[in-house]
Write a structure and sequence with these properties.
Elements lengths: L4 H6 L5 E3 L8 H9 L3 E5 L6 H14 L5 E6 L8 H10 L4 E6 L3 H9 L3 E6 L2 H10 L3 E5 L14 H9 L6 E4 L5 H10 L3 E4 L1 H4 L8 H9 L5 E4 L7 E4 L2 H11 L8 H4 L1 H10 L22 H24 L8
Parallel strand pairs: 1-2, 1-8, 2-3, 3-4, 4-5, 5-6, 6-7, 7-8
Antiparallel strand pairs: 9-10
Helix pairs in contact: 2-3, 3-4, 8-14
């Protein structure tokens, strides 16, 4: 068993979290993660209304009696969703852990803290992590350039970003982006994190609520099969490399405005692909770690395997590196 400040703070068995993922962070996956001893997060904005989120929280509780949380991502928008109502739904449902992400979460962090909710904030830069720490968050999830979704604009990979953050951040920190096995967990701990946050790896599990055609595409793809969209719009997103993403990148690189690719990258089209199983239907997020994904286990088998691999590395290979060599006979 690997115990860290993260496991102690959030009351979970293993130093592994399943971060919020649009369309994927639903009761089926989150309850499986919780039952495996890790910390799963429902994605609030996957639910169309705050009332639907309340029902999804209740549905998750029907499937597990272990801790789980909710992700609330705040994005700048002309017509934003009712974030305060989603926040109220989270608090009134008795959720004790929230993963925040995105734009200026201070008011939400303040409200969660008053309600006794522990907050993990996702960041892509050390300066953002320090700002979140000053806001009063309980933990940080630091996302390296390898991650799926939005890696920020600094392009700093985890091997540098994680220890750079660990040198300065005092609250517990999860390493995110590129993690999918026990080797990654041990590396994250060695770099100064208190655990790992995985998204892409949990997509390729039995319980992930996406079509098997997408899961098989993840297995077929390697670490090179991603595209970086929206670079010129300063809103970089890492997605699977497919016909739609390649076309969108080509149009963007020609200097066209976002409106020129909006029909290709709209969220509804991407969601349709997750449902119908056609990996070329729309854009869908995946990280470089897909190059390390070679099977579709149950969530419990995956978590158990990661912990067993990590313990074997710590107690076996790394321990042997320090063992005195046997004397060579004369």
């Amino acid at each position: 068993m690997i115990s860290t400040r993260f496991t102690e703070l959030f009351g979970v068995e293993h130093p592994i979290a399943q971060g919020g993922m649009q369309w994927v962070g639903t009761a089926e996956l989150v309850s499986a993660v919780a039952n495996a001893g890790a910390l799963g997060f429902l994605t609030a904005l996957t639910q169309p209304t705050p009332e639907a989120l309340v029902r999804e929280i209740a549905r998750t509780r029907d499937m597990t009696d272990r801790p789980f949380g909710v992700n609330l991502t705040i994005l700048p928008s002309i017509t934003p969703p009712p974030y305060d109502e989603y926040r109220r739904a989270i608090i009134e449902s008795g959720i004790t852990a929230v993963e925040t992400a995105g734009y200026k979460p201070q008011e939400h962090v303040d409200a969660f803290k008053v309600a006794g909710v522990k907050v993990i904030h996702k960041c892509t830069a050390v300066r953002h992590a320090l700002a979140a720490e000053r806001m009063g968050v309980d933990a940080i999830s630091i996302d390296g350039f390898e991650c799926a979704g939005h890696p920020g604009e600094d392009d700093i990979p985890g091997l540098v970003l994680i220890p750079a953050a660990a040198d300065r951040v005092k609250v517990p920190m999860l390493a995110s982006g590129g993690f999918g096995d026990g080797r990654g967990l041990v590396a994250a701990l060695a770099l100064g994190a208190e655990g790992i946050n995985m998204g892409s790896r949990f997509c390729a599990t039995v319980e992930a609520p996406i079509h098997d055609g997408i899961k098989q595409a993840i297995l077929t793809n390697d670490e090179r099969a991603t595209e970086l969209l929206f670079r010129s719009y300063r809103n970089t997103a890492r997605v699977a490399k497919n016909m739609v993403a390649v076309e969108a990148v080509k149009i963007e690189r020609e200097g066209n405005p976002f409106e020129s690719i909006a029909h290709l990258v709209k969220g509804a089209r991407g969601r349709e692909g997750l449902v119908n199983g056609n990996p070329d239907h729309g854009i869908w997020t995946i990280g470089l770690v897909q190059g390390l994904i070679h099977d579709i286990p149950t969530v419990k088998n995956l978590v158990d395997r990661i912990i067993a691999e990590a313990e074997d590395i710590i107690d076996g290979r790394l321990a042997r590196l320090r063992a005195p060599s046997e004397a060579v006979p004369a």
